[in-house]
Amino acid sequence: MVVQAERRVPSRNTVEPSTLEGMRERKKPCVLVIAGPTGVGKTAVAVALARRASIEVISADSRQVYRGMDAATGKPTREERLAVVHHLIDAVEPDDRYQAARFRSDAAGLVEAIHARGRLPVIVGGTGLYIRALVRGLDAAPAADPAFRRELSSLARREGRVVLHRRLAVAAPEVAQRLHPNDEVRVVRALEIVRARGSVALEPERAWRAEGPYDVLYVGLTAERESLARRLHARAAAFVGAGLLDEVRALLARGYDPALPSLSSIGYREFVRVARGVLSPAEALRRMQRDTVRYAKRQWTWFQREPDVEWIDVGAEGAIEGAARRIEARLSEEGVLA
Predict the structure, then answer these.
(1) Are β-strands 86-87 and 55-59 bridged in parallel, bridged antiparallel, or unpaired?
(2) Residue 200: pLDDT band with limits 50, 70, 90
C-alpha cells in the first residue's frame, strides 16, 4: 500500500487524497495503530499526522463510542474532528452493549471503506482488547451463557462486584490480577470461560491468532510516568469542572441503569454515587484520579505484551509534532507514504 504524503502548498493547509495504485500491490491492507495509556496524546498525534498524510481515524475507545457521555471520556474536540475524519465516536447509546467482536466487525468495514477512498486507516485508542481483536482476530471462545450471567449479576447486586472478583481469584488468580474488581463485564466473561473450559488463556499467542488480516505498523505512545500521572490528575479535575456531575444526573434522569458498563466506567461510577448522595464531590474526584492512574498502568502492561509495538516517548521526541514526524518517517520507511 502506498499513500501519498501531503504536497506542501504554502497558501493552503489541506491534504490531497491518496491514490490506490500501491495499495493493490500488497496481499493485505495496511493499517496504522496509535495506542498507549489514557491522556498520553494519541488523538493530538493523529491530528498532527493528518497534516502530513491522508488518513482517517477509527477510534478504539470503549467509552468514546457512547453518545451523551462527553464530560469524562476525552473525546476529540470539534476542531480535532474537523481536522481529520473520526469514526466510531458517538456511535451507540449508553445502554448498548458494545464489545470487542462488534468493534472488530464495525472497524473492519471502515478499514475497507477508507482504503477504497485511497486513505490510510489509523486505529487510535487505548482499549487494547478492541485493537487486538481487529489486527489479530478473535479466537473461538465459548458462547455466552445467559442463565449463568444472570446468576452472577444477581450475586453482584446482592453482595457486591468484589464477590465475583474473589471467585475469579480462586479459579484463575493470574487473570484476576489483571482485572479490576469493578470491571464486572470482563470478570463475568472470565468466569464464564473458566466454567466452560476449565481455564482462561493468559498469553496472547494462546488466546489469539498469531496472524491477522492486515499489515500493521503498531505504534505505542508513552511518557514519563510521574508527569503523566500529574496530567491525569489535572485532566480528571477538568472533566469535573466541565460538568461531569450534571451529565451523570442527566443520564440517570433518562433512565440509564448505573450498573451498565458505560456508567460503571471511571468517573461515571464515582459521580453516580455523588448524584445519589453517597460520596462528596471531593472524594469522588480523588477516587477518579486514583483509578485513572491505575488504569493507565494497566494499559501500559497490556500494550507491552503485544507483539511488534514500536514505542515513542512523546516527551523525548519533542512532544506531539515530534511524535507525528517520527510516525511519518516510519511510514515512509515501510513504503506506505509516497
Answers:
(1) parallel
(2) low
First and final CA of the chain: distance in angstroms? 10
Q: Enter the C-alpha cell of residue 287.
A: 477516587
Helix/strand/coil (H/E/C) assignment for every residue in 174-202:
HHHHHCCCCCHHHHHHHHHHHHHHCCCCC
Mean pLDDT of 36-61: 97
Q: Smallest Cα–Cα separation from 45: which of 124, 152, 160?
A: 124
Domains, the chain, in order of start with CATH, read 23-139+205-333 (3.40.50.300), 146-200 (1.10.20.140)
120-177 per-position pLDDT tens digit: 999 999 999 999 999 988 766 677 788 888 899 889 889 999 999 999 999 888 888 8
Give 16's DSSP letter.
Answer: P
- What's the CA gap between 310 and 304, in Å, rounded? 10
The residue to which cell 473458566 is assigned: 194
